[in-house]
Design brief:
Radius of gyration: 21 Å
Strand content: 5-15%
Helix content: 25-40%
Distance between the termini: 27 Å
Number of strands: 14
Shape: globular
Largest sheet: 7 strands, mixed
Number of helices: 12
Length: 370
């Protein structure tokens, strides 16, 4: 069986370093905050080239806190936040939990990220933020979004939960907008052994408020300037992530080599390969192709011992929990078409060339020629 992802091989290789780090934490008894969390924040800020990085409990926390710190969530009518309908629900949950209202704009069919032309049409006087989703490991087209946001005083908060180390015209994901939001869920390019997240920003006001929000609104111990949340990252996860962060560059390079091998091996097959925008460096959290008869092909791949994933089979505007918005099928046709066609092939740094070749050969056989 060729798994769609592998969480054990890399951990096994790092087990000695991890054991030393955990022993250090157990010896001190400092499980919340402390030098491991502070060290991870410094090192991740250096990766993203931002003034600050604030560790939080999950990627959802990161988006929620960043939006709140950017001004979403007023006492009157809900602030609107424009985002993509092709994402995991954490993107929109966080908007609602911050006190905002999700507003969707359709995607660019080539990249499956927000189409700036359609974002422009969605802006209203109530728009407080734009939340582009850097899907599958590639940044959204940020410059047009920033140009749209600036004259309206709209914040741009990057959902970079799948884009650790990706770049757009030399700028690192998480450093392009007002804030960036990352998840350290175990399957991410940089994943822990549990939940975790990070907010990156070069705005001191955003960093300061995220630090308060993650820790019950405290400005110092037992002094609370506002109600906050229990949204802290624990020291054990921080220590593991610091070790893995040192390998992120080589792991991302390997993902890109695997992607190149997929492209070569699937040339001429009846599949649409993922597009790379000019000037962007894709880090391939997923290698996601599009094809007709996706479900048939996926079932046949499974029968031949190849696992795949679908990210995501039901666009957010058609989820039951958003029925109150009143959207129907056809409202966002590009996102709906993608949801019917996308298929994520096995992708992780430990995948061998022989396994990639086997996936290509099997998929070519099942999908046929273009």
């Amino acid at each position: 069986m060729i798994r769609s992802t592998d969480l054990t091989t890399a951990l096994a290789a790092l087990r000695g370093e991890i054991d030393v780090a955990l022993s250090r934490i157990f010896a001190t008894g400092q499980f919340i905050g402390g030098p491991e969390v502070e060290g991870l924040e410094r090192e991740f800020a250096a990766l993203c080239r931002t003034g600050d990085a604030v560790a939080v409990g999950s990627g959802t926390d990161a988006i929620r806190f960043a939006l709140m710190a950017a001004g979403v969530g007023g006492p009157s009518d809900p602030d609107e936040v424009i985002t993509s309908p092709l994402s995991f629900i954490a993107s929109t949950e966080a908007i609602s939990q911050a006190g905002g209202r999700p507003v969707f704009a359709d995607i660019d069919p080539a990249t499956c990220t927000l189409d700036p032309r359609l974002v422009e049409r969605a802006i209203t006087p109530r728009t407080r933020a734009i939340l582009p989703v850097h899907l599958y490991g590639q940044t959204a087209d940020m410059d047009p979004l920033l140009d749209l946001a600036k004259p309206h005083g709209i914040a741009v908060v990057e959902d970079a939960c799948q884009a650790h180390g990706a770049t757009d015209r030399g700028r690192v994901a998480g450093a392009i907008g007002d804030a960036g939001c990352f998840s350290f869920y175990p399957t991410k390019n940089l994943g822990g052994c549990g939940e975790g997240g990070m907010v990156t920003t070069s705005r001191p006001d955003i960093a300061a408020r995220v630090r308060r929000l993650r820790d019950h609104g405290q400005v110092e111990k037992y002094r609370h300037s506002e109600e906050g949340y229990n949204g802290r990252l624990d020291a054990i996860q921080a220590a593991i992530l610091r070790i893995k962060l040192r390998h992120l560059g080589e792991w991302n390079d390997r993902r890109r080599r695997i992607a190149a091998r997929y492209r070569d091996g699937l040339g001429g097959a009846a599949v649409v390969l993922p597009a790379e925008r000019p000037g962007a460096v894709h880090v391939y959290h997923q290698f996601t192709v599009r094809l007709q008869e996706r479900d048939r092909v996926r079932a046949a791949l499974r029968e031949r011992g190849i696992e795949t994933g679908i990210h995501y089979p039901v666009p957010l505007h058609l989820q039951e929990c958003y029925a109150w918005m009143g959207h129907r099928a056809g409202a966002f046709p590009q996102a709906e078409a993608a949801a019917r066609e996308v298929l994520s092939l096995p992708m992780y740094p430990e995948l061998t060339d022989a396994q990639v070749d086997q996936v290509c050969e099997t998929l070519r056989d099942l999908a046929g020629a273009a």
